[in-house]
Input
Amino acid sequence: MGDTEVSMEDIAQDVELKQWELNNQSRTEPVKYAPGDEGYGPEFCVNDDCGSEMPAARRAHGFRVCVGCKSIEEERGKHLRRY
Ligand SMILES: [Zn+2]
Output
């Protein structure tokens, strides 16, 4: 049974290392807010026909359009790629 204990310990150490790596990664993750920019992205969707308030989470990632407009954009992109 001694072997089992050792391998269990190895696995535990592996998991610990992976968790440490993950924690470290999240600390050095690409910046969400650009320096000097309050909230980073625009406060409102840049689409003139929309102008919806931008969710803070999207602004933090620097998105300039709301979820609705983004999906429309992606739809258009798919259509364009066909030609
Ligand atoms: Zn929009």
Observations:
- Residues 40 and 79 are 30 Å apart (CA to CA).
- The radius of gyration is 22 Å.
